[in-house]
Amino acid sequence: MKPGLEVVFERYRGLICGKRIGLIVNPASVNRSFHHASDLFLASPDCHLVALFGPQHGISSTTQDNMIEWEGGRDERTGLPVFSLYGATRIPTEEMVRDVDALVCDLPDVGTRVYTFAATMANCMIAAQQFDIEMIVLDRPNPIGGEQIEGGLVEPGFESFVGMFPIPLRHGMTMGELALLFNEAFGIGCRLSVVPMEGWQRTMWYDQTDLPWIMPSPNMPTLDTATVYPGTVLVEGTLLSEGRGTTRPFELIGAPFIDPYRLVKELAEEKLPGVFFRPCFFAPTFQKHQGEVCGGVQIHVLDRQQFKPVITAVALLKAIYRLYPDHFAWQQPPYEYVYDRLPFDIIAGSDKLRQQIVADIPLAEIEASWQPDLTRFREMRSSYLLY
After folding, report:
1. Which of 8, 75, 242, 351 could form a disulfide with 345 if both were Cys (CB 3.0 to 4.6 A apart)?
2. Tens digit of each residue's pLDDT (9 = 90 or more) over 2-41
3. Bond prior to 334 in cis (omega within 30° of 0)
């Protein structure tokens, strides 16, 4: 299969020919041969690359954590100006795009609404509309497939950089499809072109493509991480460790007060599909519980087609809250530039899920509560699917 980065040079050169390009990229913006988008655009004789823009974690993906900002400057290798979209501003300013005819976005996604690259793309679309320049999105695969959707939608009053629009945690769309949805259904209204992939199908996971896996961010090392992330990202909204500071972020979940064997016994009662919880101990080298031995579980996905990452993570949080009510705690603000709401609620998109966990509402009832909104979302998204 071919990502939009390859297709644009083969079939859509007219979109970039003769234009001054501002390229939105990170280290994962490569083709099948590991050639980076910036090098390909620099080598193209019929367009002029004038600036680079980078999302959260930096254009070199070196900043580890949430709300660690980075500054732009000048790229030593190419001499191009580099603008940070995760620092003083998260939306391109008029000065940044002064010499740009078209913003070209070639960012990966991991299929989860909380992953901020889609929000960066949306902010660039907003700037493109505001300053009357073109927006071109080079499409890439959703690494966890394009069929399953799961979780609650963002409700009014809970919008944020990890939830700009009412979409679920696992949305089952590609970046190009999200761009079309944002532009039309949610009213951005920029001059948008999406360069589609060739050979990708909705049933495909990333390891069924011939594209190399490049870490899209420092704590997304593997496809296994991306598989569990739509659910275990919720752990960021608690004082439990989500495995940052280990070699298995988002797969290892725990805290110093947890007896892993007791937790696994509790989780076994739920009979969750496609997953095995292995009791384990780990000691994070940074972030929450740094240097402390945590008891917990490693989430092993046995059948990724049956596995439901969001409800699985909810089951895990419910079990820990039920077993350790005097130790469990919610992370306090700020989180992704929101200072007046609990981070868990910002990640979940409302305060309902937190209330359901505290009230120990049965999993089936929690899952059922998402379905009316998911049905409406599935109908809306159908108009913007490219594959």
Report:
1. 351
2. 999 999 999 999 999 999 999 999 999 999 999 999 999 9
3. yes
